[in-house]
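USER: If only I could read backbone structure tokens as easily as an amino acid sequence. It would mean a lot if you studied the pair and described how this chain folds. Here is the record:
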Amino acid sequence: MNTQLFTLSIIEIILSILISVSIIFITYKMLKWMFFKDCDLRGNNLAFTIFTSGVILSIGIILSEILPSITNVIRLSTTQVEATETSTIILYSGLYLLIGFLIAVIINLSVFLLFSLLTRGVHEFKEIQKNNVSVAILVVAILISITIISKDSIALLISSLIPYPEVSNFL
């Protein structure tokens, strides 16, 4: 058994779980604080539950593209001859998460803009607060569609920022 690889995989699993749970928790709290102060998940407002589930799924899809880049930075730091400082790993990880957060905000804003253009006169947040399930489903479908379509581009952007070691060109 390769103990270094085993230890690295355990660290990656723990890191992935901690980051995912933290970001999903923060996302839920921000949604409640910014838009739905009076709504909860106890079943009184199914539209809010559907909308929240869609946003969390969208964040999960984006995180699934970002976390491998964070673990690649950790792998590179443990396999290089020169030791990489922990602060550098944290800096890159924070940068990747910040980019992911900004992309998630852009995706959400584009969904609301698109929904507003498609349905003039319908205010999605007010309709979701009124428990309008059809609006929540449509908003979530658009959100997840745009997230799925853009996830490969997000992965490419993040992986382009990974500090791979220089390799000489023999050609």
Notes: The first helix runs from residue 3 to 34.
